[in-house]
Design goal:
This is UvrD/REP helicase N-terminal domain-containing protein. By secondary structure, the protein is α/β, with parallel strands linked by helices. 35% of the residues lie in helices and 20% in strands. The chain has 3 domains: 159 residues; 221 residues, P-loop containing nucleotide triphosphate hydrolases (Rossmann fold), CATH 3.40.50.300; 203 residues, P-loop containing nucleotide triphosphate hydrolases (Rossmann fold). The chain has 17 helices and 25 strands. Strands 1-2-3-4-5-6 form a 6-stranded mixed sheet, with helices on both faces. It has a 6-stranded parallel sheet with strand order 12-11-13-14-10-15.
Length: 599
């Protein structure tokens, strides 16, 4: 039996691996022929330890460590609760409107369940007690009598998607991306758009379920699955505890919209899970408590007046505990006071505070001395991610080389990076295409090169225009002579001349959007998106390309920010990465670092 996954370490009773469960996996792992998926929440409020699938038969299994003393006292009550749970499961699954065959059994290896006239049928069909467990050990095939029949492949896959949505990630097309070879991708249409659901890896399932109370930190580079894990945990806990409230919070609206859309397409209307960006959350609370918001002042100086509203909200909510769990994504953009406030509105005990961060995505100089604002907290668990589920092997190697070359360069200037600042990854994908760096003579040749690459990707590689993004650092830049370069305008004109459709990136654009052409974007509007092909240009726009011994700490900080801008651009790519520049190595140490990162 291939199991996903048994090495779970959780402080939550509903997710921990029980003693009888451990013994079952140890004994039957090599004796049963099917596939097992652990810790399922098929419907709200009901948790299943194991979903066992053999020859398209489905068997739900719950393990009970109940001993003889407790069972002898609570026999009637336990049987009644178990039967009610089974009937509730059947009623809820009927609402799926799927002609699916399945069964639920309770394995109770430490007790003898005697005949009971009231529950006789339930005991016979749904309980394996000590004697039945011994028979199962002697002959594993006896499990077959609890199977209710084979299901069609399509129905089985769809049912799996319905009952454990948190074990899937939604992508737009991804014909060449597969995370788990044991489970087929599920393709479906929603509102005329085609989506694909991919089953996560055993490692990811382990991390989803290994939940501890208190503070947990997820650290990892782009593409390593941090947001997927946070989203999955939020879904899992909201379904496990339907009477408690949970909050998923981001800093920017784009990521918030992406998370909302992901959960909506997973088909889960989780009324106890709130999803906000931080500013929207504070304004929502301000309105809820009838605080006065002066929109004129807000337009004049958003940051200053927002701080005023935030202080009022903090004061009103002092000593108020609202949420059992809070999940913060892109924590590198938050400050200490914001994190303290979010921590303060959690339950006082048995709360769950999960934070995800990537220090290299700091492009606002938010991190002082490379220290994250979350480092004021004491963490019960720190999880570092080094798998890359987004990018091909060659692209991952290039970015790892870029990381190493950056470290080698910066160490010449007495900069002490913490170990968690530059993290490398290992790709879980195919080998892929080489990264290209194209040097051109001027902006006119650069535009021609961009157009050529787009047409090549579409006509020769089979990509759609919507698979491609053109990224540049800023929309415009002022030169030393006072002239302004409006690269966006020049690019747009060239695309129109060749009848290439395009769109601008904004807060509403998400990974699952139906994009009507090539996306063009500065780095700030693309921070949370991914594309099959990235054309990165206008590195020349960056204000600092070299360092020397005379540079101040402030100037070194700006140079590192520029490297972070490049890192974000590079990590938006899935299959193809093309860098186009007029700068040569003698003009720019950044170009030298990039060139040295090629194979």
């Amino acid at each position: 039996m291939r199991i996903y996954s048994t090495n779970i370490i959780s402080e939550l009773d509903s997710l921990r691996i029980k003693d009888s469960e451990k013994a079952f996996y140890k004994h039957f792992k090599k004796k049963l022929k099917g596939i097992g998926i652990t810790k399922i929440v098929p419907v709200k409020g009901i948790n299943i330890d194991l979903m066992y699938i053999e020859r398209n038969n489905i068997l739900f299994i719950k393990f009970m460590d109940t001993n003889e003393d407790i069972y002898s006292i609570l026999e009637e009550e336990l049987l009644e609760v178990m039967e009610e749970e089974y009937n509730s499961l059947v009623s809820e699954i009927k609402l799926f409107n799927l002609d699916i065959k399945y069964n639920l059994i309770y394995i109770m290896p430490y007790v003898d369940v005697n005949n009971n006239e009231e529950f006789d049928n339930f005991i016979k069909n749904h309980i394996i007690d000590r004697n039945g467990y011994k028979q199962l050990i002697q002959n594993p095939d006896t499990i077959n009598k609890y199977l209710k029949g084979e299901n069609e492949d399509v129905l089985l896959n769809l049912f799996r998607f319905y009952i454990c949505p948190e074990y899937h990630v939604i992508k737009k097309e991804e014909n060449n991306r597969l995370i788990n070879k044991d489970f087929k991708r599920i393709s479906f249409f929603k509102e005329d758009y085609k989506y694909t659901a991919l089953f996560l890896s055993s490692f990811q399932l382990k991390k989803i379920n290994s939940i501890k109370y208190g503070n947990t930190l997820f650290l990892g580079p782009a593409g390593s699955g941090k947001t997927t894990l946070l989203t999955s945990r939020a879904i899992k806990l909201s379904r496990l505890y339907p009477k408690d409230k949970f909050l998923f919070i981001t800093f920017n609206k784009q990521l918030m919209n992406d998370i909302k859309n992901q959960i909506d397409i997973l088909g889960k209307n989780l009324k106890n899970l709130e999803i906000y960006n931080f500013h929207g959350f504070i304004f929502k609370l301000a309105k809820q408590f009838d605080l006065v918001i002066d929109y004129t002042k807000l337009k004049e100086n958003f940051s200053k007046y927002f701080e005023n509203v935030f202080l009022q909200v903090k004061n009103v909510l002092k000593n108020t505990n609202i949420y059992k769990g809070i999940f913060i994504d892109e924590c590198e953009n938050f400050n200490k006071e914001e994190i303290k406030f979010l921590e303060s509105i959690l339950y006082k005990s048995k709360n769950i505070f999960n934070i995800s961060a990537d220090k290299r995505k700091d492009i606002k100089n938010n991190l002082k001395s490379f220290i994250g604002p979350w480092e004021i907290l004491d963490f019960n668990d720190i999880i570092k991610f080094n798998h890359n589920y987004r990018q091909t092997q060659k692209m991952t190697l290039f970015i790892n080389n870029f990381t190493q070359n950056t470290l080698e360069y910066i160490k010449n200037f007495d900069v002490n990076f913490p170990k968690d600042y530059y993290l490398k990854t290992k790709s879980f994908r195919k080998e892929g295409e080489k990264v290209e760096i194209i040097t051109v003579s001027d902006i006119e040749e650069k535009i021609k090169s961009i157009i050529w690459e787009i047409e090549y990707l579409v006509k020769q590689k089979g990509l759609k225009y919507s698979d491609i993004v053109i990224i540049y650092p800023y929309n415009k830049r002022k030169l030393k002579n006072g002239n302004m370069i409006y690269f966006q305008y020049i690019l747009r004109k060239a695309l129109e001349d060749r009848n290439i459709p395009y769109i601008y990136s904004n807060d509403e654009l998400i990974n699952l959007s139906n994009k009507m052409g090539v996306t063009i974007s500065n780095i700030y509007s693309i921070n949370n998106l991914e594309y099959r092909a990235v054309i990165f240009c206008q590195i020349e726009m960056l204000y600092s390309h070299n360092l020397n011994e005379k540079n101040t700490n402030y100037e070194i900080g700006n140079f590192i920010k520029n490297l972070n801008i490049i890192y974000i651009a590079l990590t938006r790519a899935i299959d193809y990465l093309i860098i186009i520049t007029t700068f040569k190595e003698e003009n720019s140490d950044i170009i030298k670092i990039l060139n040295n990162s090629l194979e």
